[in-house]
Amino acid sequence: MSPVLPLPVTPADRATCAATDILRMVGEKWSVLVLAILADGGPYGFNQLDRTIEGLSRRILTRTLRALEADGLISRRQTPERVEYTVTDLGRSLLPLVVAVGEWAIENAPRIEAARQRGGSR
């Protein structure tokens, strides 16, 4: 089997890696949650999203929506009444992969916690 990455991995390799960029976004605290909410029941207005997600400031919601839109994962549409956000086909295609990671995490949480209790390095 060939290696996943060419070795050695340089800073330039990391900076230009598309996977690293997306994994950062997926690992961001609010992005996947906003994406999942929009996929479940969009379109949503800004205030509707703000009320739906407790603990998320309006400033961070704005930043998250802008980043998701810039990546093409959601779309923004101005109507006479409000701004609406919906998930795009690209965003919808990412969700099953994120759900699979979440399912893996839930399934393996006891094993991970046991390793942590044994003092595994982090």
From TrEMBL:
<keyword id="KW-0804">Transcription</keyword>
<keyword id="KW-0805">Transcription regulation</keyword>
<dbReference type="InterPro" id="IPR002577">
    <property type="entry name" value="HTH_HxlR"/>
</dbReference>
<dbReference type="InterPro" id="IPR036388">
    <property type="entry name" value="WH-like_DNA-bd_sf"/>
</dbReference>
<feature type="domain" description="HTH hxlR-type">
    <location>
        <begin position="17"/>
        <end position="113"/>
    </location>
</feature>
<protein>
    <submittedName>
        <fullName>Helix-turn-helix domain-containing protein</fullName>
    </submittedName>
</protein>
<dbReference type="Pfam" id="PF01638">
    <property type="entry name" value="HxlR"/>
</dbReference>
<keyword id="KW-0238">DNA-binding</keyword>
<dbReference type="InterPro" id="IPR036390">
    <property type="entry name" value="WH_DNA-bd_sf"/>
</dbReference>
